[in-house]
Amino acid sequence: MLPDGFLRGIRELIPDEYGEFLASQDRPPVRALRINTLKRGSAAASAPFVREDKPEVPWEMYGRYIKADARPGASAAHAAGAFYIQDASAMAPVAVLDPKPGEAVLDMCAAPGGKASQIAARLQGEGVLFANEYVRSRVSVLRSNLERLGVVNACVTNSDTGAYRKNLPEFFDAVLADAPCSGEGMFRRDANAVSEWTPDAPDVCARRQAEILDCAAACVRPGGRLVYSTCTFNRTENETTVQAFLKRHPEFEPGDYFLEGIGASRDGCLRLWPHRIEGEGHFVCRLEKRGRSEARDGKRAPRRKKAPAELDLLYRDCVCALPRGIAECRGGELMLLPEGMPDVSGIYAVSAGLPLARVGRSHIEPSHALAMALAPENALRCVQLDSVQAGRFLQGEELACDATPGWTLMCFNGLPLGWGKASGGVIKNHLPKGLRLRGGHSVDTPYTDTEAQ
User: Fold this and answer.
1) Number of folded domains that form the chain
2) Which of 136, 152, 221, 310 is the least crowded, having the fewest Cβ atoms under 10 Å away?
3) Residue-level pLDDT at 1
C-alpha cells in the first residue's frame, strides 16, 4: 500500500491525472535494455530479448524494451557485455546531458553504472569519464559493470563529492548529478522503497542533494553543462531544489531541450510519469554555466614508468592491437590511461583507465578487463564458442580444444567472455572466480533491479 503522505503529494501535483497515475502503479513495471555500442555485434546479440510490438525507447537511440517472458540477464550475451539492463526512464538524464566524444565527463553518483556506461558509449573511447561512487560497498559493482561493457577510458573513484570540488575545479565539460533521493519513482518496481519512505524523507534528501549540486557546480567549466536528476516525484527534491540552486549559483541558467516521446522541458526541467510513458518516475533538469569555453585547466597526471618492454610482452603473447591511450607501468601492473587524464591527487581512484596485465620478469598475465575491451581480431589467438561451450566456460570449466598454445580470447557470437590459456589440447579457464556462474543453468545470471539504474 502506498503511503498516504506520498499520495497527497501526487494529488497536488497532477490532480487531473491522479486516477491514471494510481492505475499505473497496479501494472507490472516495464523492463528495458540499452545496446552497448562499444562492442560490435551487440545489437544482434540483444535482438532475441527485444519486444516486437514496441521495440525502441523513443528518447534513447539504443534503448530497447524487453519481452515480458525474456531473461536477458541470464544469457551469455549479458555476460559478454552486449547490453545493460536499465529502466527506460533512467536513460533520459544522459540523453539530456548529451556527452560528445573527446569531452571530460563526471558522473558524481555512478553506481551501479547504468548512466556511467551510457556516457561511455557516447564518448566512444575518446575523452575521459570519471565515475564516482561515495558508498564503498557499491564501487565493486560499478567497476565490474564498466569492465563487462568494455569501457576503456574511465577512472572509477570512491570519494566524497567535495574532493572533486577541491581538486578538479572547472575541469569538466559535463557533469551528471543523479543524486540519492527518496525513490518515489521506483515504488512500482521496488517494495523496499515503499517501506523505507517517510514523510520527512524529501527534506532529508534535499539537504544532501544541495551539497552534491554545489560540488558539481564547481566542477563544470564555463560554457559547460550540469544535469541534475532524481527518481522521485515531490517538488522538494526536484523543482524547489533547482530553484534554490539557481539562487546560490547565478553563474548557471536553465537550458531547455526536447526528448522524443516525452516532450519539451520547462525552465530546464522535465518530469517522466509512469502513466504517460513506458518507464518509471524520473525528474531531469539541465543547467548551463555561463561563460565561454576555454582551454581545460587541470594538472596533468604525474608520469609513471613508460612501458615499452612490458608492451612488447603483451604484443608478443596476447594482442596485436590495443585501444587508444597511454601505456604506463605501475608496480607490476600495466595500465592504459585515457589521453587527457588529469592529476587525481586528493581523489581516491579505485582504477584509472584500462588495466592491461600483470607483468613479471619475462611473462605476462592479461587482465579480464582487457579481454572484455578487445575486438576478437585484435587478440593474437581467439576461439569462438557455441552456446554449450560458452555456458561451461562461464561456470569456470576447462575446455578441450586443439588450439595453438598461449593466451586465447574466448568469444561467443563474436563477443569476448574472457581469457583462456591453451596447452596440451586443453584451454585452462582464467575467468575471475568472482564472475563464474553457479548452478545447473548454462548461463544463469539472474536479473536484479539494482542494475536498472
Assistant:
1) 3
2) 136
3) 86
Place of cell 545447473: 440
Largest CA distance in the chain: 72
Range of the domain at 325: 302-345+353-374
- Would you state the pLDDT for residue 406? 96
Q: Could you give the C-alpha distances from 179 to 215, 272, 334, in angstroms and in order?
A: 12, 16, 34
Residue 299: predicted pLDDT: 54
- Are 257 and 338 in the same domain? no
**Annotated active-site residue in 231, 269, 318, 329:** 231
Q: Positive or negative CA dihedral for 375, 81, 122, 164?
A: negative
Is the Cβ–Cβ distance between 390 and 444 less than 8 Å? Answer: no
Q: How far apart are CA 442 and CA 419, in angstroms?
A: 18
ω into 112 cis (within 30 of 0): yes
Same domain? For 383 and 317 the reply is: no
Look up residue 395 and give its DSSP letter: T
The pTM for the full model equals 0.94
pLDDT along the chain (453 residues), means of 10: 95 97 95 97 97 96 96 94 98 98 97 98 97 96 98 97 96 97 95 93 97 98 98 98 98 98 98 97 98 64 63 93 89 90 93 93 92 97 94 95 92 97 95 81 38 63
Element (H, E) at 37: none
Based on the fold, state whether residues 141 and 281 are members of the same structural domain: yes
Q: Are residues 101 and 246 located together in one domain of the fold?
A: yes
User: For residue 311, is it within any domain?
Assistant: yes
What is the side-by-side order of every strand in the sheet holding 415-423? 382-385, 406-412, 415-423, 426-429, 399-400
Q: Is 285 a catalytic residue?
A: no
The CATH number assigned to the domain holding 164 equals 3.40.50.150
Q: What is the model's pLDDT at position 303?
A: 52
- The pairing of beta strand 32-35 with beta strand 63-65: antiparallel
